[in-house]
Amino acid sequence: MSLKALTAVISALCVLMVLPLVSAPSNTVTYASHNITFVGVTGPVNGLCTWTYYVCSGGGRVVHAISHWDLESCVGTTNEWPIEWGTDPNQGGSIEYGTDQHTGITGIKFDVGMDDYECATFWFKVKECTVGQKEVGIKSGQNIYTGSYLPGPSHETTAPEFVTPLIPATIAFAAVGLMFVARKK
Q1: Tell me, what's the pLDDT at 79?
Q2: Residue 20 pLDDT greater than 50, yes or no
Q3: Which runs of E-coded beta strand occur in 73-117?
Q4: Which residues are bridge partners to 123 per DSSP?
């Protein structure tokens, strides 16, 4: 294989790896002046993945502060039951599983009650590491907001350590290709 051909193949692989990043869905949902941002998922560590979200409550006379927010999940799937959860700063409150009577979303309900213009990081640990698109909802005062999606735990089995398996494969392929070209000279 010529150096030109090898360069073309490696360039094509790099473009294929970048395309999903360009067309990736948004990691922030905005309802009125409330925001929920998917920060990321890490792990697995000891069989658990940590999912993190940053939530900011709007406020004022028209838009009330967030009383709770929901993340869709398969409550019947034990991979999606949180083993641990928390907030930073500590919001107190509780989490519930099931269908929220206000939003209609089946999943995890973070019943924490935020103040106007308050922001907090929410995290939880589950056995599920695979990313899927999940509906998120907010209740603030009498206002109900639903219909938008963020990355969240899917229904699948635990993912491997590498979120994008193409990266290590591409590095290995490039290294072998470069060794092959260097050996031909």
Answers
A1: 53
A2: no
A3: 84-88, 94-99, 106-111
A4: 52, 86
User: Measured in whole angstroms, how far is the alpha carbon of residue 15 from the centre of its chain?
Assistant: 24
Nearest to 161 by CA among 129, 127, 123: 129
The H-assigned helical ranges of the chain are 3-22, 166-184
pLDDT tens per residue across span 61-93: 778 999 999 999 875 555 556 677 878 877 778
26-163 architecture in CATH? Sandwich (2.60)
Six-digit token string for 33: 């002046």
**Side-chain half-sphere of 100: how many Cα atoms within 13 Å?**
27
pLDDT in the model for residue 126: 86
> Is 99 strand, coil or helix?
strand
Q: Which residues pair with 30 in a beta bridge?
A: 35
Type of residue found at 94: S
Q: Which residue has the tokens 């089995």?
A: 157
- Locate the domains of the chain by residue range: 26-163
Which residues in 13-118 belong to E strands, given as ranges?
A: 28-31, 34-45, 48-56, 68-72, 84-88, 94-99, 106-111
Q: What are residue 78's phi and psi, to 5 degrees?
A: -65, -20
The token pair that represents 66 in the structure block:
């967030």
